[in-house]
Amino acid sequence: MPDTTYKHATGLIREAEKISNLPVRVTWDDTLQVGAVLHLSEAQWSKQLRISVKPNRPDIPYLVGVQCGLAIRFYTQREQRHLTASQTSRDKAVSEFRELGYAPEMAKSLAENLLAQLGSQIRSAAPLIKLSAQIYRDYPELRDSQLTHFLLEKEDGERSLGIDTAKFPEWILRSHQAINGANALAADYLFDRTDFFAPFKQAGFEAICTGLVGDVTGSKTDASDTELVNAWLNRLDLNDRFEWMTP
């Protein structure tokens, strides 16, 4: 049975329920590829904020708290925009993969999948850094679980530095690595450490990652997701690669 102890997230659960006027329900799903998922798309008809959590994770309190924080941001901002690669960007990426030696169908598949993944990463990372800083400041009872979470994610982020550069267009790989580095640097800032970001610093990412984190920490308190993401698109020089879509 999963450890259902997430009492330290009570404050954020309460705030999410207050702003949405919906109860928070935590369910367990050991098939998740990530730690937790907030099912906002079903909230209107299910009349609840359902959060799926991978059981037996040691960072469950923070996972639940973050998803509640995301719900709070959504009901505060009411932003439903998605970031997607433009058709021109997809066509360019296919050509770039072809130049790397991939067959046409494989090049198309890689371009579609990796651009979707990168767009999702850009869309979520900057708001999550903003949210994690707010949680650290306002919910000290979650700090131990928050640090556990960052330690769990540390290896995955660092692994991106070892990806074979000959297999991917440089801008896709460097953007992915830079975002991972920004997450690591933000963790160092919060917990007064240096070990999260050290591998990225050694790999030459200090300038870009400092800029990315600065875009978030230097933003206004009520900065929207769109404002944060646009700042990152500009810094990563990806304005011509991605565009906003409203469902």
Label this structure with key terms.
10 helices, single chain, 5 strands, three-stranded mixed sheet, about 250 residues
Q: Summary?
A:
The protein has 247 residues and is mainly alpha-helical.
Structure characterization notes:
This protein has helices at 10-20, 43-46, 60-77, 87-99, 104-138, 143-159, 170-191, 198-202, 206-217, 225-235, and strands at residues 24-28, 36-38, 49-53, 82-85, 242-245. The chain has 247 residues and is mostly helical. The model has no long low-confidence stretch (mean pLDDT 93).
Fraction of residues in β-strands: 5-15%
Helix content: 55-70%
Strands ordered across the widest β-sheet: 1-3-2
What is the succession of H and E elements? HEEHEHEHHHHHHHE
- The rounded distance between the terminal residues' Cα atoms is 38 Å
Helix vs. strand class? mainly alpha
Q: Major beta sheet, specifics?
A: 3 strands, mixed
Mean pLDDT: 93
pLDDT under 50 segments (min length 5)?
A: none
Radius of gyration: 19 Å
Secondary-structure map with pairings?
Blueprint: H1 10-20, E1 24-28, E2 36-38, H2 43-46, E3 49-53, H3 60-77, E4 82-85, H4 87-99, H5 104-138, H6 143-159, H7 170-191, H8 198-202, H9 206-217, H10 225-235, E5 242-245
Parallel strand pairs: 1-3
Antiparallel strand pairs: 2-3, 4-5
Helix pairs in contact: 1-3, 3-5, 3-6, 4-5, 5-7, 5-9, 5-10, 6-7, 7-9, 9-10
